[in-house]
Amino acid sequence: MSLVYEKQIKITEQHIDQNNHVNNVQYVHWVEEVAAEHWDLLKHKTEYENDVWMLLDHHIRYKKQVYLNDVITVKTYPQDPEGAKQPRKVEFYCNDELVVDSSTLWILFDTEAKKIKRLENDWLERLVLKID
């Protein structure tokens, strides 16, 4: 397992808007979806298994349009922590070309204590050791 998670998505009618390309809002949905899928794979190896990530900040850049029947590859990975904030990249590729680039900031929420949980600066390094 890796700290990079990849998923392929075939573009269907439900993803297309009135301009005949993937609706920009759909990418926002996919950003949250792939981040959650990735965390579901990793969380069992952490002491944060019952905690949830909450999206704090989201920036997205649309570089090229994607159309019906295209297949995109979505890649996501965490970046170095920033105190209580965890940056994550989500990149969308079509035919090996970056078409959408997203940078997000997340906070880990302790569902039992009902408060934000601060992560140690080396938590990703320790996670890598557990999954290798």
Automatic annotation (TrEMBL):
Pfam short name (any one): Acyl-ACP_TE
Domain of life of the organism encoding this protein: Bacteria
Transmembrane segments: none
GO biological process, one term: fatty acid biosynthetic process
Domain Acyl-ACP thioesterase N-terminal hotdog intervals: 3-125
SUPFAM superfamilies named among the record's database cross-references: Thioesterase/thiol ester dehydrase-isomerase
GO MF, any single term: thiolester hydrolase activity
Keywords: Hydrolase
Protein name per the record: Acyl-CoA thioester hydrolase
